[in-house]
Amino acid sequence: LTMAQQPQQLTNSTVTRPSFYTHVQFQTNIGTFCIELYYRHAPKACNNMAKLAEGGYYDKTTFHRVIRDFMIQGGDPTGTGRGGESIYGRKFEDEITSLKHTGAGVVSMANSGKNTNGSQFFVTLKPTPWLDGKHTVFGRIYSGMGVIQRMGLVATDEQDKPKSPLTILQAIPLKGPPEIQTSSQIIVSQ
User: Fold this and answer.
1) 154/29 Cα distance (integer angstroms)
2) Strand ranges (E), the chain
3) What residues act catalytically?
């Protein structure tokens, strides 16, 4: 992993203090989408995504798994579906709430079982009620749903890996919806 892809080791006070980011904007090789974070419902998952984005962890990673009419999955710097770390230095517990996977655009933590959240996340492409109670819902697609839909239609191999990479060029945490950001709040690296 490159330095940008390793989670910053944070002190307990830094980890538990909310980041106050409300959205994370993802610039990809096929377009930009923005996730609204649901801090009230899943503060640890939201803080994890925002802080990972702030540290450049998601930059140059791919959406390694796409299942048409189901979901797209990313957030693994190894691109295998088996990697990724949280800002907490370990896997962290689920935050199961009343939020459900009711339609396209729901953002949830990917996991390998109970309380195994790291850096990976997925976005639903349709209602997926069988995931309710098993995955932490922590946001929704705020803008760019057309980009998500295009990602969901790419050709994949037999392991659901896109044949052409879907790359996150940069993930940018925001302190408000993207249309009210000023140029000083969005810093794009060259």
Assistant:
1) 13
2) 23-28, 31-37, 62-67, 71-76, 106-109, 121-124, 137-143, 168-174
3) 65, 70, 73, 111, 122, 131, 135
Cβ contact 167:72 at 8 Å: no
**CA 51, 52, 57, 62 torsion-angle sign:** negative
- What pLDDT, on the 0 to 100 scale, is given for residue 122? 98
Per-residue tokens: 118: 């790291």
- Ranges of the chain whose pLDDT falls below 70: 1-19, 180-190
- Per-residue model confidence as pLDDT tens digits over 145-179: 999 999 999 999 999 999 999 999 999 999 999 87
CB atoms under 10 Å from CB of 171, counted, come to: 25
Phi, psi of 49 (to 5 degrees): -65, -45
Of 189, 139, 120, 101, nearest to 23 (Cα)? 139
Token digits for 139? 């946001």
pTM: 0.86
**Residues 6 or more apart in contact with residue 117 via CB below 8 angstroms:** 44, 45, 48, 86, 91, 92, 93, 94, 109, 111, 136
Cα–Cα distance measured from residue 115 to residue 57, given in angstroms and rounded to the nearest whole number: 21
pLDDT on residue 173: 97
